[in-house]
Amino acid sequence: MNVGELNRRLADARLVYLLAVVLLAIVIWAGVTHFRQQAQLMFVQMADDLKVDERAHSFRLVNVGQQTLYFSDRPLRLTGHLKIDDYLKTWNRGSDSFEKDNPNATLSVYEPGHPENTIVVVEISNPVVEGSDLVYNYKVLDGTMPASGGASTLFIDWSALGVGTVGRAGRGVGGVGVRPGAGAGGPGVGGPRGVGW
Questions:
Q1: Are residues 29 and 123 in the same domain?
Q2: Within a domain: residue 51?
Q3: 175 pLDDT band (50/70/90 cuts)?
Q4: Do 2 and 88 have their domain in common?
Q5: What are the phi and psi torsion angles at 116 (to 5°)?
Q6: Cα–Cα distance between 105 and 141 in angstroms, integer?
Q7: Residue among 131, 152, 158, 126 nearest 58 (CA)
Q8: How does strand 41-53 pair with strand 152-159?
Q9: Which member of 13, 134, 141, 150 has the lowest number of beta carbons within 10 Å of its beta carbon?
Q10: Which residue has the higher pLDDT, 168 or 154?
């Protein structure tokens, strides 16, 4: 092997090494990007009763639980709960906040005299705490809003919360900011008519 051939082989080895490093960087970047797009939160609120004001297009979660549950699915599974006041503080945070892009939600209501729960998919907005109740404005997307009901659960669609927007620093949820509803088709919580439409 002469010096020229050795230099050519070393140059080829350097090129292969450089291409391998670039390929590895692309794979890592693509993996992180995919991971970031998958982290989405959903919220759950439960109440003892439901009152609906059709004229005002609002519903009242009567004696709502003072904790709002949250969870996410793979790849980053997060669970926990927030006080209602902390949940409401997140409503207008971020460029894709619930205030700017009202979330869809599935309302599951046990109406007196009905053997099964009533399911209605709504778009919710303007949450307000009144005493031990939580009031939302709504627009029906699917189903029929009951005039009133008993025990009720509200399953709230994907959130775009980012680092530090919920909970204490380093322990909060939403470690990754995402666009709400991005690719969130198909059945969600509450069955085929649930959140995720």
A1: no
A2: yes
A3: very low
A4: no
A5: -125, 160
A6: 9
A7: 126
A8: antiparallel
A9: 13
A10: 154
Under 8 Å CB-to-CB from 36, ≥6 apart: which residues? 176, 177, 178
Assess whether 80 and 4 both reside in one domain.
Answer: no
What pLDDT band is residue 39 in, cutting at 50, 70 and 90? low
Query: Is 70 exceeded by the pLDDT of residue 124?
Result: yes
Q: How many domains does the chain have?
A: 2
60 part of a folded domain: yes
In a shared domain, residues 78 and 112: yes
Running DSSP on this structure, what letter comes out for residue 103? P
Tell me, yes or no, whether 99 lies in a domain: yes
Closest CA to 136 of 56, 46, 43, 41: 56
**Nearest by Cα to 157 from 37, 40, 34:** 40
Other CB atoms within 10 A of residue 163 CB: 13
Check whether residue 90 and residue 115 sit in a common domain.
yes
Predicted local confidence at residue 164, as pLDDT: 35
Confidence at residue 173, expressed as pLDDT on a 0 to 100 scale: 35
Cis omega (within 30 of 0) on the bond before 192?
Answer: no
DSSP run (H or E) holding 87: helix 84-89
| Dihedral pair phi/psi, residue 22, rounded to 5° | -65, -45
Q: Look up the pTM and report it.
A: 0.64
Question: Strand 41-53 vs strand 58-64: parallel, antiparallel, or unpaired?
Answer: antiparallel
CB 122 within 8 A of CB 141: yes
* pLDDT at residue 166 in the model: 41
